[in-house]
Amino acid sequence: MNSFKKIALAVVAAMTLGTMVATPASANTMSVVASTWNAAKTGGAGYDTPATAGTALTTAIVRPVPADNTVDNTDVVQIVATVVAGTSVTATSTNATIVSALHSTAAPVGATSGSSSLTVATGTGTTATFYVYTKTTAIGTIVITNGPVTLTYYVQGTAGLINNLTVSAPATGAAGTKQDITVTATDVFGNKVSGKSITATVFAASATLDTATATTGATLSDFGVSTFKATLPATGTRSLITFAPTTAGDAVTAAVVGLTAPTLSPFAEISVRDLVSELAAEKAAKDAAIAAKAVADAAVLKAAADAVAAKTASDAAIAAEKAASAKSLADAKTASDAAIAAEKAASAKALSDAKTASDAVVLAKDAAIAKLTADNAAALKAIKASFNALAKKWNAKNPKAKVTLVK
After folding, report:
1. How many domains does the chain have?
2. Residue 174 domain-assigned?
3. 34 and 148 both lie in a single domain
4. Would residue 122 count as lying in a domain?
5. Contact 23/35 with Cβ under 8 angstroms?
6. Average pLDDT for residues 145-149, to the nearest whole number?
């Protein structure tokens, strides 16, 4: 029994050793280096490993957005994965884009190039290279996968120059009141740009500004937004205020081919309301409405009175018509009842006369029948008496052939 256990343990050990040997010591290993371009690198410009590795949300690797619509070495994070030869490496991104090569005149790579996922087969080599750029200031992720091994890097874009200014202002405001006007600065990709001065210019002295310049905010509540306060004039119909970047270098100088054209001179137009005149006009309109309502109410009351009078007359006509109809019906019923009574009396007399005549006929018939009956009885009796008299004579003469007397 002990010998059998020893043999079994030896077999298990041999199988385990065989399994371990079949798996190379270097399988499922991957090293990744993420670096950015350094023009001042010792020995010549090239990629350096960044001071912050980008492996945590708080240490995202920061790169400028490709505002010139060319994805070159200054815009990207270069990721080089070293793996076992013959395996594949996949990079998947969120809030970022992956390309396999950088821009060149022969092979342009722009802000619409690339995808959110890219797989590189190393073939006989051991490295896979990816270039990652972003068009947003939101933090993005790059996940590098080789078999079961996964590493994640974080990237974040820095906004470009101001490409668009948008204005938000009230459509109307009361004369002499102060109104807030907000101006939002964004780059060509819609990222808000903070810390930039915006200058406001009032057209034709149609308003007074608290300050002619304001800086786009950098806090969570006002990021990329500057606020101006404008006092509307006491007289006039509108206020017109234009806005532009204070410093020319803070904004793009010309449209970039393939990207959104700049809008750098928006304006706010606020209609000025004269509340005193509006109130007077509203009061006049209200008084006119009240007067018109009084006229309308009087017309309604008259119409109601006319309707009541018409109804009274109609009710009287209906009552008279009903009375005449009732009398006509009563007279007709009286005449009908009289005709019916007369007809009934005549019918009763005719029936009585007919019965009297019928009774007389019946009595006469009964008397005639009674007489005929009596005559027949007397005749029958005489016949019987005559027959019996003859029968008696016969029987006397013919005793042997007697006949029966009738009763």
Report:
1. 2
2. yes
3. yes
4. yes
5. no
6. 96
- Final residue in a domain of this structure, among 123, 158, 193: 158
Residue 28: band (very low, low, confident or very high) from pLDDT cuts 50, 70, 90: low
Question: Which amino acid, 389?
Answer: A
Q: Examine the fold and report which residue of 124, 139, 158 is the final residue of a domain before the chain moves on.
A: 158
User: How far is residue 165's CA from residue 244's CA, in Å, rounded to a whole number?
Assistant: 8
Domain assignment of residue 73, yes or no: yes
pLDDT tens digit sequence for 172-196: 999 999 999 999 999 999 999 999 9
pTM of the model: 0.64
Same domain, 175 and 122: no
pLDDT at 388: 87
Residues 66 and 169 in one domain: no
Residue 380 pLDDT exceeds 90:
no
Q: Are residues 230 and 244 in the same domain?
A: yes
CATH number at residue 78: 2.60.40
Question: Mind listing the pLDDT tens digit for each residue in 85-134?
Answer: 999 999 999 999 999 999 999 999 999 999 999 999 999 999 999 999 99
Does 97 reside within a domain?
yes
